[in-house]
């Protein structure tokens, strides 16, 4: 009996309450595609989307650069580059074979070159020694050209 009276009381409160889920006749319905701000005022949406991130860099003056660039091009075209021999390509580090050992060796030799950039002295002489050893490995593993074969990894590795 007590439960039934509470149940009817709650339903009456919901039905006659101004906070009920029914539509309030005073409030305007929200049209499709409209947006409201935090105070309930409508916000107008632009017809075309635009971005503030559109940026175009200022034009570069090419007058100075093109004249020096043309001189460099003329000099390099007048001297024909000779094709490097296989031995020169093996010793060169201008290109690196697609091999993880060769890539590591190249980065290590670059690091050693950076250490030696200030000159060789008694404190960094060990870098010069290691660089000579790594250069020998580079040539043995053919890292400047086609890369090492399977057996080259064991035969070319420096033994301490």
UniProtKB/TrEMBL annotation:
This is Secreted protein. It comes from Shewanella schlegeliana. Residues 72-90 have a biased composition (Basic residues). Residues 38-103 are annotated as: Disordered.
């Amino acid at each position: 009996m007590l439960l039934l009276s509470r149940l009817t009381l709650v339903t009456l409160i919901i039905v006659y309450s101004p906070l009920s889920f029914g539509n309030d006749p005073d409030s305007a319905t929200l049209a499709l595609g409209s947006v409201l701000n935090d105070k309930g005022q409508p916000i107008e949406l632009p017809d075309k989307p635009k971005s503030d991130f559109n940026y175009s860099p200022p034009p570069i003056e090419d007058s100075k650069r093109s004249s020096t660039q043309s001189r460099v091009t003329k000099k390099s075209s007048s001297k024909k580059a000779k094709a490097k021999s296989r031995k020169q390509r093996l010793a060169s580090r201008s290109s690196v074979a697609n091999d993880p050992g060769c890539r590591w060796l190249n980065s290590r030799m670059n690091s050693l070159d950076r250490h030696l950039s200030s000159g060789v002295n008694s404190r960094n002489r060990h870098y010069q020694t290691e660089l000579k050893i790594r250069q020998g490995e580079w040539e043995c593993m053919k890292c400047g050209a086609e890369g090492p074969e399977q057996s080259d990894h064991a035969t070319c590795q420096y033994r301490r």
